[in-house]
Amino acid sequence: MIELIPAIDIIDGKCVRLSQGDYNTQKVYNENPLEVAKEFEAHGIRRLHVVDLDGAASHHVVNYRVLEQIAGRTSLIIDFGGGIKTDEDLLIAFENGAQMVTLGSVAVKAPDLFKKWLQQYGNEKIILGADVKDNRISVSGWKEEGPQELIPFLDDYTKEGITKVLCTDISRDGMLQGPSTELYKQVLTRFPDLHLIASGGVSCLQDIIELEEARVPAVVFGKALYEGRITLKDLNRFM
Known about the structure:
Oligomer: single chain
Structural class: alpha/beta
Distance between the termini: 8 Å
Helix content: 25-40%
């Protein structure tokens, strides 16, 4: 059964969504992310993906108080990303209730630091963020295109012990046009034991069904829920 991971993206302490990572497209869905998280939990959701978009833009963790509230007042298993660039940032994330962190930019720009954290905390707590545009890895809140292509990037880090990867197709993110299922199939063909978390583009229940049929282990989605294209009741079939 595919693992369902709703996303809560945070700007100014509010629950928002962007389109293709463009901050100018932000739409506020709820001014209280804790309310959203509690609603997810009440419907049987167990995992949550929290993204500090202010942190991603400013290169250090910003919205850790929101993380602390959700972690302290729900039983959700939270992975947190956005702005984690230093040992202090990582400690802030874990001390405020994240069970896992998703790291993308630092894996590209500071691979030695990423590998140190992987050794220090283990591959159960460290998720590799692979944000892809035209098959190339993007960093810094998707503002910069890195030099690496997806498969070699994953190959390097699976050899270092990474087992969990959150792969986002930037061109699909927030667009409600369907996920990059073929891309995820390619990744799983190359890395069959990878715990791949698909992200970006989920528009309806059928998209999740097709990802499950493609044997994708987990999926992150948000806008389809917030826009009412998928209801929490719809998700009962996966619980």
